[in-house]
Amino acid sequence: MAGLLLAAGSGSRLGRPKALVELAGERLVDRGVRTLSEGGCSPLLVVLGAADTSVTGALTVRNPDWETGMGSSVRAGIDAVPGTADALLIALADQPLVTPEAVRRLVVAYEQGARAAVATYHGNPRNPVLLGREHWSTVYSMAQRDVGARPFLRAYSHLVTTVACDDVASPEDIDTQEDLARVTEMFGGV
């Protein structure tokens, strides 16, 4: 199963690209790649846009349309997935509290037959998201502006396996300096 990390945004509310933000001495983009790898995804792809950086352990995909929103990054990522991949797990760089165990749970759901799955936190679907190849074209057509797989998950909820991850991860994201301070404090103020 391929792993796709979306890390193209400029972080306009944060004041810098989120991919380059460090948390506990590790850039969010590197943390996301490590999380996907340790969770069982391979190959790994990272969609970049605002930040031009190298990422060890992943194929870098440039999204020239990153300013249009997450939808274009989802499409760029799907376009770059190797033909041998049967499924894709999508995660966001700005959610550093998503753990390898949450990713692993989605991988296990796939191994047990799920063709679409989403991590849930207190019953609410968030990220990461797993998509079997047969759903990529539908997600591709629905991923517009600043939405990725969410419209697919809603429209085809009857096909989606929910995977509880409350006990091993959190969907907290970093959009503002306040968010960064809160998440940094969760990491012991590093």
Describe, in plain words, how this protein is organized in 3D.
The chain has 190 residues and is of the alpha/beta class. The chain has six helices and nine strands, in the order βββαββαβαββααβα. A seven-stranded mixed sheet has the order 5-4-1-6-8-7-9, sandwiched between helices. Helix 1 packs parallel to helix 3 (100-111) and helix 2 (70-80) runs antiparallel to helix 4 (136-142). The protein is globular, with a radius of gyration of 15 Å. The termini are far apart.
Q: What is the number of strand segments?
A: 9
Radius of gyration: 15 Å
Shape: globular
**Helix proportion:** 25-40%
Quote the average pLDDT: 95
Structural class computed from helices and strand pairing? alpha/beta
Number of helices: 6
Strand order of the largest sheet: 5-4-1-6-8-7-9
Please give the CATH class: Alpha Beta
- The CATH architecture comes to Alpha-Beta Complex
Uncertain segments are none
CATH superfamily: Spore Coat Polysaccharide Biosynthesis Protein SpsA, Chain A
